[in-house]
Write a structure and sequence with these properties.
Layout lengths: L1 H20 L7 E3 L2 E3 L10 H14 L2 H14 L4 E7 L2 E5 L1 H12 L2 H14 L3 H18 L7 E5 L3 E2 L3 E19 L2 E2 L6 E11 L3 E11 L4 E10 L3 E10 L3 E7 L4 E6 L2 E2 L8 E5 L7 E7 L4 E6 L19 E3 L15 E5 L5 E4 L3 E21 L2 E3 L14 E11 L3 E11 L4 E10 L12 E4 L8 H10 L5 E2 L8 H18 L3 E3 L30 E10 L2 E10 L5 E9 L4 H18 L4 E7 L3 E6 L9 E7 L18 E8 L5 E3 L12 E4 L1
Parallel strand pairs: 4-28, 6-11, 21-26, 27-29, 27-30
Antiparallel strand pairs: 1-2, 3-4, 5-7, 7-8, 7-9, 7-10, 10-11, 12-13, 12-24, 13-16, 14-15, 14-17, 17-18, 19-20, 20-22, 22-23, 22-24, 22-25, 25-26, 30-31, 31-32, 33-34, 33-38, 34-37, 35-36, 35-38
Helix pairs in contact: 2-3, 3-4, 4-5, 4-6, 5-6, 8-9
């Protein structure tokens, strides 16, 4: 009996001991019908229990109790970290130093606030920490009565280029902390203000002058604006022949947006003969055909061939040309699109009534000749006027000419483009020709070749019916949990729609529907023009874009994670914070998060530089492809006839995908398990 009583006492003591571990001895407060200082389950004296209870205290304004619990959580688990496992498949975002910094800010201790927030940013950067760092610095500088001065801005960029894309970079310095930098209206993403911030932006340049505005601001409102000009010239010089008497004289004019670098006749350099672009040459020692070649300082070139053997007696102005392109003249099969006039002949190299191209910029090479001097040339794309470089350098007047040879770069849109060239002579005669340029998307740039992402509903853990469906679809997916408030249903839908639309607009990812709610992807009955992502048999995605929101009295934080479907490992995480939570703020958060994802995972290109028995080494032009990321190896094809007319430029054809690989260490691809033939010079692109 005694032994039995001792066993009972031992069991009771054990049960008491276990229960005491799950009892929350900290005070619980009530305010406006809500309890603070509580956790979602039993308090088990773990670090995540102290962290969760601290957030509850903080939301209620019980800051001393919150600091005490945060200090205890840090004693057990020191560093701020995202995606921390608590138990089973449950994860949380753990930011004890950040939350301490916010509390110190609310208590008015801006020095301690900044210290704790910087610890958090060092370990795990977050937009919320960056916001409160900025606010602490503003409060401190206002208290110190810092003067408001503009930041110092240094810029690096080419003044002229023949490239479609250009890098504008710079450095901004300010003792009042640089907080904002925008280039051409797009803000650079800055985690937290700094006294010195470098930046760079890659921009697409239109042909001609490009005006780019850079604005930098500091935390106190000091601002500097600079407007720069970059001249993009992908067109060759225009050659205008005013008079040609074979074996006697040749006169005319060269014009180009850039400075002229070379002017050759039959291979002999004659640049020294130019005076303000004009030339008047004696041809006593130049019998037979003439080949004129003009190049500008950026390397763009135009050629013109003159064949005096084809001249008719006593005719000097109307001389036929030695040329081997499609000649759109009266006898041409496409002459029905031309206003007929026997005095005007228009020829465009490599182009018929319809032509297929695969690149955005097209080199329009051609010649115009007339029995009377040409006074004006007008170029229209889809009815919009484009410029041909017939204006002289430094404002010089360009003479009229009987023969004009040009090499003009034009940008064409995807699909069908109507191009029209109109010519008028000084005597008033007019001629024109119309043609169609069809721009197709190369295979490697089609949406099907992009990394496929399924956008899952925001805060799916907060809605049971969605969670159960997700669990049926992705049974092993980790669940992000937490006791903080989340966005309302309507605002979640606003976020999902804005996120999907921005992802689609940027065309970096192949976006698949969530398969849960059409509203989540922006397909609504009210606006049928919005892109619908619903598929009858949706393909399997490469990754899931998962998101969660956290709403407290001081703002809204949204974090998205791109998770690999095969392993459920996090590829990239991005977050944004707004002190306000209206619908427009939620839309802005979605767009900023989309920008962050695209900035972190750009489309990186390169080529194969070396091949061994087992590996392919890759050299990239615009960054490094992260290890483990899928990459395509492909070939660029020369342009080939497609449809009724040929493609325009050699090397501007479609692409042929050789295979899909996984990027290995040291920017290499493993070929051991592949029988695909890869050659040096083949192209590579991140999926």
């Amino acid at each position: 009996m005694k032994r039995f009583m001792l066993n009972i006492i031992f069991i009771l003591l054990s049960l008491y001991s276990l229960c005491s571990c799950a009892v929350n001895h900290a005070p619980v407060y009530a305010k406006n019908g809500k309890k603070y200082g509580v956790v979602s389950g039993n308090f088990t004296d773990r670090w995540y229990d102290y962290y969760e209870r601290a957030l509850s205290y903080k939301n209620g304004g019980y800051f001393n109790e919150a600091l005490s619990d945060l200090n205890r959580a840090i004693e057990i688990r020191r560093n701020d970290q995202r995606w921390v496992n608590t138990y089973g498949m449950h994860f949380i975002d753990y930011f004890p130093h950040r939350e301490k910094g916010i509390i110190y800010y609310l208590l008015g201790d801006y020095r301690l606030s900044e210290e704790e927030l910087l610890i958090s940013m060092h370990r795990e950067p977050s937009a919320k920490a960056g916001h409160f760092i900025n606010q602490s610095r503003i409060k401190r500088m206002v208290k110190e009565k810092r003067p408001v001065t503009p930041p110092a801005l240094q810029l690096h960029y080419p003044q002229s280029t023949r490239d479609e894309f250009v890098k504008v970079s710079g450095l901004v310095k300010d003792g009042c902390y640089v907080s904002s930098i925008s280039v051409s209206g797009e803000k650079m993403q800055i985690a937290a203000s700094e006294t010195t911030l470098p930046f760079y932006k890659q921009l697409f340049l239109s042909e001609g002058d490009n005006h780019i505005e850079i604005i930098a601001r500091n935390l106190l409102g000091g601002e500097i604006q600079k407007r720069i000009h970059i001249m993009s010239d992908r067109s060759g010089p225009t050659i205008i022949i005013k008079e040609h008497i074979p074996e006697v004289t040749l006169s005319g004019y060269l014009t180009d947006r850039s400075a002229l670098r070379s002017f050759q006749i039959n291979g002999a350099e004659r640049i020294h003969t130019l005076k303000n672009g004009f030339f008047n040459l004696q041809l006593i020692s130049q019998p037979g055909p003439l080949l004129l070649t003009a190049s500008d300082a950026l390397g763009n070139t135009t050629q013109l061939a003159l064949n005096p053997d084809q001249l008719r007696p006593k005719e000097r102005a109307d001389f036929p040309l030695f040329m081997a392109g499609t000649c759109l003249v009266d006898a041409s099969p496409f002459a029905g699109s031309m206003k007929r006039h026997p005095e005007i002949h228009i020829r465009i190299d490599g182009m018929g009534h319809e032509s297929v191209v695969y690149k955005k910029s097209v080199s329009l090479k051609g010649e115009i000749r007339s029995t009377s001097p040409v006074g004006s040339i007008k170029l229209y794309l889809e009815g919009e006027p484009l410029s041909i470089a017939l204006d002289g350098n430094e404002g010089h007047v360009v003479p009229s000419g009987a023969v004009i040879s040009f090499n003009q770069s034009i940008a064409v849109n995807e699909g069908r483009n109507t191009l029209k060239i109109s010519v008028e002579t000084v005597s008033g005669n007019q001629g024109s020709v119309e043609m169609t340029i069809i721009r197709k998307i190369p295979e490697i740039w089609k949406p099907e070749s992009r990394f496929a992402v399924r956008l899952t509903p925001l805060d799916h853990h907060a809605r049971k019916y969605e969670r159960s469906l997700l669990h049926r679809l992705f049974g092993q997916a980790p669940v992000l949990t937490g006791s903080a408030g989340v966005l309302e249903d309507e605002k979640r839908s606003v976020f999902q729609e804005a996120m999907a639309l921005d992802l689609l607009k940027r065309k970096r990812f192949q976006l698949l529907s969530s398969g849960i709610n059409d509203l989540e992807t922006g397909a609504t009955q009210k606006d049928p023009a919005r892109p619908a992502l619903k598929e009858e048999h949706p393909p399997l995605p490469d990754g899931l874009l998962m998101g969660n929101s956290c709403v407290d009295p001081w703002g809204v934080e949204v974090t998205v994670r791109l998770v690999a479907l095969a392993s459920f490992e996090e590829i990239i995480a991005a977050d944004h914070f707004s002190p306000r939570g209206e619908q427009e703020d939620v839309r802005r958060i979605a767009r900023d998060l989309s920008q962050s994802l695209h900035h972190s995972l750009p489309v990186i290109e390169g080529k194969v530089t070396a091949i061994s028995s087992e590996k392919v080494l890759i050299s990239c032009t615009n960054g490094k492809i992260r290890e483990g990321w899928p990459v395509y190896v492909y070939k660029e094809l020369d342009s080939t006839p497609d449809g009724p007319g040929p493609s325009l430029s050699k090397g501007g054809g479609d692409t042929a995908i050789l295979g899909l690989f996984t990027m290995g260490p040291d920017q290499s691809v493993d070929l051991k398990k592949s029988n695909i033939h890869v050659e040096k010079g083949d192209r590579v692109i991140a999926r």
